[in-house]
Design a protein that fits this description.
mainly alpha, about 325 residues, MetI-like fold
Amino acid sequence: MTNEPVVNNMENKDKFVIIGNDDIASEKIIAPRYSYWRSVGRVFFRKKLNIFLIVAFILILLASFVVPVFCPYDPMENVTNATTFNMSPVKAMAYFGKSAPPLKWILGTGPQGNSIFYGLFSSAKTSLLLAMACAAINMSVGIIMGAVWGYSKKFDAVMLVIYNIVANVPYLLLVSVLVYVVGSGFGSFIFALTITGWMGIAYFFRTQVMIIRDREYSLASRCLGTPIPRVVSKNILPFLTSVIVTLLATELPMYISMEVYLSFIGIGLSATIPSLGRMISQAQSAFRTFPWEFWPPVLVASMVTIILYLLGQNLADATDPRTHM
């Protein structure tokens, strides 16, 4: 009878382990790891429409950048043969027969006997490059200048005067004058669209930064001596991710539409540079008699604009943390 408690105590020592009292370990919370961008991807790809839009946009990009490499476009290749002018797809396929690549004349010929199919993707390449370059420059400069503009009161006073002067000049009028002054080349056109195009973006971000800069966590960082550039890059800009994506969604289609419009009225890119706007401008007077020259560039420009807009809007919704709940 006297040995039983000893045996029970030995068994209890094998079952229980004393871990001690660790204040730091007691504060740790065991929770699954959270990745913001993984959550963004999950929300974004939840919509099957986004997958379809991405595939369609990739196909347009591949066609625009790959087709001109293997099938160079020459708008003057049949300029001396008047019988090839403005041929319908059926007539063009029958006329050129098997002597040409199978898809070259599938959309017919233009006013100078040029291939509409080859010209379409060469033009789409130009318009896409122009839109991407302008959006990259204006968004980068606009976000950086807007962050500084909204955080520095001295810089704000100077920039407000400059912005009020520039904003009173119609943007299309300013671009038109710059195109006439500096020329209508590809680089000159980008310069005309970006010389003041970033100011509207910067002013928009100025307002957003001013809303966030005086919040508690930003004030706490400033009280702790955090440098201003770090406060802006770590506390303010990440909070505006969805705003940046939303703005980018409108910028890319806008530049494609602007190139089409300016080329349509005759002040866009030079005649030696193929573009969607140039194709539409050349076919505007004959879109009833020769519809195969007018509608393909219109459809491609519309598809790219709609796809970019929808992808941007859906990505903006996915980057909003409130949709991750």
